[in-house]
Amino acid sequence: MNRIIEFENITKEFKILNRREGLKGSIKDLVSKNYSVIRAVNDISLSIGKGEIVGYLGPNGAGKSTTIKMMTGVLEPTSGTIAVNGKIPYKNRCQNARNIGVVFGQRTQLWWALPMIESLKILKDIYQVSDEAYKSQLALYESIINVKPLYNKTVREMSLGQRTLCDILAAFLHNPSVIFLDEPTIGLDVSMKSKIRHLIKELNARQKTTVILTTHDIGDVDALCERIIIIDKGSMIYDDTAGNLKKYFGAYRTLKLKIKGEYILSDIIQALELRFLNQTSMVVRTSEEWISILSKEDEAPIMEILMFMQGFILINDIKIEEINTEDIIKKIYEGNI
Amino acid sequence: MMKQGFRYYLKIYGKILVQNIKSKMSYRADFFISLIGIIFVNLSGFITFWIIFKNVPSLLNWSYYEMLFLYGFSLIALTPVQCFFDNNWNLLTYVFSGDFIKYCFKPLNLFFYYISEIFDIKGIGQLVVGITVLSYSWTNLGLDFSLIILVKLIIALVSASLFMISITNFAAASSFYILNSAYFVMMLSNKFKDYAKYPITIFGGALRIIFTFIIPIAFMAYYPSLAFLSNKEATFLTYFTPVYGITFFYLSYKFWMFGAMKYNGTGS
Ligand SMILES: Nc1ncnc2c1ncn2[C@@H]1O[C@H](COP(=O)(O)OP(=O)(O)OP(=O)(O)O)[C@@H](O)[C@H]1O
Ligand SMILES: [Mg+2]
To answer: What domain range includes position A278?
Structure first.
């Protein structure tokens, strides 16, 4: 029984009332049968084992949160079979909740007006955690991060980052078999992000907790995930290790150029398009003073691009980089694998 | 399945309550100012009442002190809804923003978890005013008092309090069903409690039936009070108050829970 989560052909549809305009329309809406159906999750099958950290990725509206809501038993799938810890979550919401932990970014589940430590004590009672287990869990927390100063702060007084940190600690308190983190690092600064990644990684390593994480921050993926699942428009488009993802895209390189003087990006893109007619996967972007050109080596070799560019602009500095996960995922979203 | 019993919930409620009270006490100034505030609100309500009825010797056979009795009784009966069920007022916002979903992740009864989250200590001020007014009218009416009467009074007050709690439950839970009009329903339901302090007989036929059976505010003071006022006849409905209160509360709870189950977050 090492499978924590099993999805078989899960589909979730939402029925949405087509609203009409104006007062007359809203009166008609009261008795309307004019629904349209949104398929938020489309025929997904997956299986997640004990101790895995899975990055669940996809563009906005892909169906990530919907999937997690089904795993937590809040939503019932329209069709398909689902099991979490061998049980059907939506049929046993309460019982399922005892074995899982959930953090929905920016929505704290701690008591707003209470000091953090009191919230933890209430949770201890709710999940019926034994005294020893509770003590050793706090000791574990204290050994990973400096949490003691937060114990007597109320959630109200905490910064967003501190609150997220505490929410994660609270979610792990009853040592659940699986933790769902929906965008845990959203809105946090760099150092808080790395603290939270460290915390998640440590807790996963020490307690063999399965972690399912949705994020738009590629840093989370690079730091944490061994396995990546990508969905788009409700359908799964990738499910493999993070390593394979990079191997697959190994032929890609990014050429970064710092250019002397003014330039117009669209002109550069146009020139490149004319020169490398056969390539389909080139991406040109700018960040600060760098222009970066992502290309596939066998379609448009970096050296040729460089020589071509030198022909009409003055280059100050260059860098050549391996493709990063962000670009890979972007390419997958865009569908040109 | 590990069915969680009454004791489990009681223990958790107790813990949350104690912590909530502690935290309210720690903002001492805030606490006293809001306490004084609510006492003043109630006093001004009382003064209005006094100005209107001081010069009216009796209203449909209700003397000034009897009216005062109803007034005090209703203030006490409205305390629990204010103290313990205040989070109902936020339900619309939670449902609207999709944040309600956070209550679904704990292994707790949804209604319990949601309602237990907030304790509003300000209701105590209303209780103080209510007890004062009730005792004052009680003495002036020359009513008997004994331990048995006290027990009866407590049963009557608790039963009466269930009605406003239930009405608030219904109104708040309407957010699950008719999101766009729920605010209006909440506002309206809150208005009803103002009628609770009048004898139901001042209302004409249709309203009287509505206020007795459909929106049963007549049970928040009028019917139960008949059991204590010496020159009033208690009716069947007086003794029916506890049963009806429990039934009505149960229905409102089911309505709330059904809505919560039906509800499934907004897009994010
Ligand atoms: N309760 C609902 N009623 C109707 N439609 C919904 C509901 N919840 C989600 N949807 C729709 O389902 C689709 C998937 O939404 P979901 O929240 O799962 O996306 P997501 O991948 O989490 O996106 P994001 O990255 O923006 O959080 C969207 O088109 C959304 O509008
Ligand atoms: Mg989402």
So the answer is: 251-334
Mean pLDDT, range B133-137, rounded to an integer: 93
Domain count, chain B: 1
CATH number, residue A120: 3.40.50.300
> Number of structural domains, chain A?
2
Pocket test for ligand 1, best of A13, A37, A66, A236 (most atoms within 8 A of CB): A66
CB A89 within 8 Å of CB A73: yes
> Ligand 1 — pocket residues by CB below 6 A?
A 14, 16, 38, 40, 58, 60-66; B 264-268
- Asked if residue A95 and residue A148 are part of one domain, the reply reads yes
Question: ipTM, 2 decimals?
Answer: 0.85
B265: which 2 tokens? 């977050």
* C-alpha dist (Å) from residue A131 to A119, A135, A138: 15, 6, 11
Condensed to tens digits (0 to 9), the pLDDT of residues B76-124 reads 999 999 999 999 999 999 998 888 988 999 999 999 999 999 998 878 8
Q: Alpha helices, DSSP H only, in A127-224?
A: 131-144, 160-172, 190-207, 218-224
DSSP state of B179: G
Q: Is the pLDDT of residue A201 over 90?
A: yes
Domain carrying residue B220 = 6-262
3-state DSSP assignment of residue A216 = coil
My answer on whether A230 and A282 are in the same domain is no
